Amino acid sequence: MTPFTTLTAPVAVLDRANIDTDQIIPARFLRKPRSAGYGQFLFADLGLTLPRDAAILVAGENFGCGSSREGAVYALIDAGISCVIAPSFGDIFAGNAAQNGLLTVALALAGLADGTVLTIDLPAEVVRLPDGTARSFTIDAFRKQRLLAGRDDIDLTLSHAAAIAAFVRQDRTARPWAGVTG
């Protein structure tokens, strides 16, 4: 994953509440390989097309509710979205987003138009509006660290490789009968 620190980019506005993961990417498109690029199927059944240069999506409350479809996160990322701002998120969607490098900011922003440029400052937990106003948000400390470091689950596991190897050595000495041979 690419580390996320700050982002200054235009927004796409989706002024609707309760956009579920099936609306983000309909299930029929998930039969295709991820390498095909899920971004082309983003909001397919809603008939929406995001502005080409938008990297921030501003949406209504309860964004990403519904099933635990990780493909919804893939579709957003593949379409160039790096951050979604909404008053609230489906819990599983927010977890999937953080695991894949997509920042979710729980914040209500009204009155924005497509193309408005915002700055997201993750270390400071601030969104800067075009008029200079700063709006604070909070994010789970563990998710924040993952995003700042650009670490996914595999990276996190590999960061403990020395401790894991030491445990395996110690365990094989203490319990030689339980070790795997070969």
Key features of this structure:
single chain, 182 residues, alpha/beta, Aconitase, domain 4, seven-stranded mixed sheet, 6 helices, 7 strands, 27% helix
Structure description:
It is a single chain. This protein is an alpha/beta fold. It has one domain (6-151): Aconitase, domain 4 (Alpha-Beta Barrel), CATH 3.20.19.10. The chain has 6 helices and 7 strands, in the order E-H-E-H-E-H-E-E-E-E-H-H-H. The chain has helices at 21-24, 71-78, 91-99, 141-149, 153-158, 161-174, and strands at residues 6-14, 56-59, 83-86, 103-106, 117-121, 126-128, 134-136. Strands 4-3-2-1-5-6-7 form a 7-stranded mixed beta sheet.
CATH fold assignment = Aconitase, domain 4
Number of strands: 7
In DSSP terms (H or I, runs of 4 or more residues), the helix count works out at 6
Strand residue percentage: 15-25%
CA-atom Rg in angstroms: 19 Å
Ends apart, CA distance between termini: 33 Å
The H/E string reads: EHEHEHEEEEHHH
Uncertain segments: none
Helix percent band: 25-40%
Q: What would CATH call the class?
A: Alpha Beta
For the record, the CATH architecture stands as Alpha-Beta Barrel
By secondary-structure content and strand pairing, the structural class works out as alpha/beta
